[in-house]
From TrEMBL:
It comes from the Eukaryota. Heme binds at residue 433. One of its GO terms (cellular component) is endoplasmic reticulum membrane. CDD domains: CYP4. Residues 1-22 form the signal peptide. The keyword Transcription does not apply. InterPro entries: Cyt_P450, Cyt_P450_CS, Cyt_P450_E_grp-I, Cyt_P450_sf, Cytochrome_P450_Monoox. One of its GO terms (molecular function) is iron ion binding. SUPFAM superfamilies: Cytochrome P450. This is Cytochrome P450. The lineage of its organism: Eukaryota, Metazoa, Ecdysozoa, Arthropoda, Hexapoda. Its cofactor is heme. It comes from Zophobas morio.
Length: 487
């Protein structure tokens, strides 16, 4: 009798869920055959598979693919993977779907309600508060930091001279971490010199844990995550990160001699000044935004710099034009005093960076989450749907980028303004990257400095990158080139 009741209940649930799924319109989108227990979660088992599997899904099923999360029988949790320009434009150009997907919550232990994660009125308030901190007049003052920290990078890269291969990633990542520490917190960390290694370790471990939680059913849910060793590792590393930021904040707050008209204010200085003047940001809110800037501002720019240098190694004719632009600006001087205006005048280098970020967007996917039923193109997308905007795939769509696999910086000389959502390495719309101008200036500063000092060549045999989506696009086997010092 009990078995009969259970069967009836299960059948009732099944037909109810089927009815919901048909009503919500997601049946319009094609989907791969799901696993009966895992749905489509089992399609990706490591970060190295994310890009290739996503590209294969788009190739096999079309520009928008429906995916199920969890057991097929019960699953009403669905996701859409899309490179459809019109759906992406609909999402990014409006203010209806602003909430980030559930995966972003894995960063919440570190970043709290920082700008990357928060939503609703809280996000709108903080976005409005933080926007003035990225005014070009303030960005100008950061250029000397880019330059001085970049000089240390050049010294460190000298270790690679005469070697058959140089993995750029560890060198560049420490450089961008040093830059972000000094610009975000006003603190020189000297990470490139081997100091504060505990902080570097904690950043790496915290990022690793957050990324791996996405791919692990046991670690995915907070209710079971505590059973894993990484739960306790994360607590240890977060204490290091939070203690460091709190100590810097308290030190600045207690320093009564702080000049509020300081010529080169760090991001933290601006937040503290605004908080004191307006009394609307708590110490914890300031900590969350500074940590968010630390997280979002180092790995992304490191990825952009490394992949651009990798592309330059493969395209000597492009590298020659980048060098020529530098010589037109500075002659044969390898260590000129760079200004904001001169960085702005590096137009061809900007095209090169944009093309690299098209082929290898630092943030290859972004996610949004529907909080209410939403109609798009005659289809009802129900609330609680995760929508993954696959930027890597969108950037390789031949409808918008002829010969999409080719590295052609000149395509950005006259990019079609009628398709603003076809190229979105910094996202777009109201939730676009608040620090995109900062990132472009930093990448120009570092890449131009390296090109002036070194000829970048491919390894022999040529190093093939193994793309890995770790929140930020990386190469699992490094980004290896040959560096030859210029005379």
């Amino acid at each position: 009798m009990l078995l009969f009741v259970v069967l009836v209940l299960l059948l009732s649930i099944y037909f109810f869920l089927k009815k919901i799924q048909k009503k919500n319109g997601l049946d319009k989108f094609p989907e791969p055959d799901p696993h009966p227990i895992l749905g489509h979660v089992s399609l990706v088992t490591s970060t190295r598979e994310v890009i290739d599997v996503s590209m294969q899904l788009i190739k096999n099923y079309g520009k928008t693919v429906k995916l199920r999360i969890g057991p097929t029988f019960f699953s009403i949790r669905t996701a859409l993977l899309t490179v459809d320009y019109h759906l992406i434009e609909f999402i990014l150009s409006g203010n209806k779907i602003l909430k980030k997907t559930e995966n972003y919550q894995f960063w919440k232990h570190w970043l709290g309600q920082g700008l990357v994660i928060s939503d609703g009125d809280y996000w709108k308030k903080h976005r409005k508060i933080l926007t003035p901190a990225f005014h070009f007049e303030i960005l100008k003052e950061f250029v000397p930091v880019f330059e001085s920290v970049g000089d240390v990078l050049i010294e460190n890269l000298a270790k690679c001279e005469g070697t058959p291969s140089c993995d750029l990633d560890p060198f560049v990542t420490l450089c961008t971490l040093d830059i972000i520490c000094e610009t975000a917190m006003g603190t020189k960390m000297n990470l490139q010199s081997g100091k504060n290694s505990d902080y570097v370790r904690s950043v790496k471990e915290t990022c690793r844990i957050a990324v791996e939680r996405v791919l692990s059913p046991l670690r995915f849910f907070d209710s079971t995550f505590w059973l894993c060793r990484d739960f306790y590792r994360q607590k240890k590393e977060l204490k290091v990160l939070h203690d460091f930021t709190h100590n810097v904040i308290n030190s600045k707050k207690n320093n009564k001699s702080i000049d509020k008209n300081i010529k080169r204010p760090a991001f933290l200085d601006l937040l503290l000044k605004f908080s004191e003047d307006e009394n609307i940001l708590s110490t914890e809110e300031i900590r969350e935004e500074v940590d968010t800037f630390m997280f979002a501002g180092h790995d992304t720019t490191a990825s952009g710099i490394c992949f651009t240098l990798y592309c330059l190694a493969d395209h000597p004719e492009v590298q020659k034009q980048v060098l020529q632009e530098q010589q037109d600006l500075f002659g044969e001087e390898k260590n000129p005093v760079i200004t904001y205006s001169e960085l702005q005048n590096m137009k061809y280098l900007e095209y090169v960076i944009k093309e690299s970020c098209r082929l290898y967007p630092p943030v290859a996917k972004i996610g949004r989450y529907t909080t209410e039923d939403t109609e798009f193109d005659g289809c009802l997308i129900p609330r609680y749907t995760n929508i993954m905007l696959f930027i890597y795939g969108l950037h390789r769509d031949p409808d918008y980028f002829p010969e999409p696999e080719k590295f052609k910086p000149e395509r950005f000389e006259n990019f079609d303004p009628s398709i603003p959502y076809a190229y979105i390495p910094f996202s777009a719309g109201s939730r676009n990257c608040i620090g995109q101008r900062f990132a472009m200036l930093e990448m120009k500063s570092i890449i131009s400095k390296i090109v002036r000092h070194y000829e970048i060549k491919p390894t022999s045999p040529r190093h093939e990158v193994e793309l890995s989506f770790e929140g930020v696009l990386k190469s699992a086997n490094g980004i290896k080139v040959v560096l030859k010092k210029r005379p």
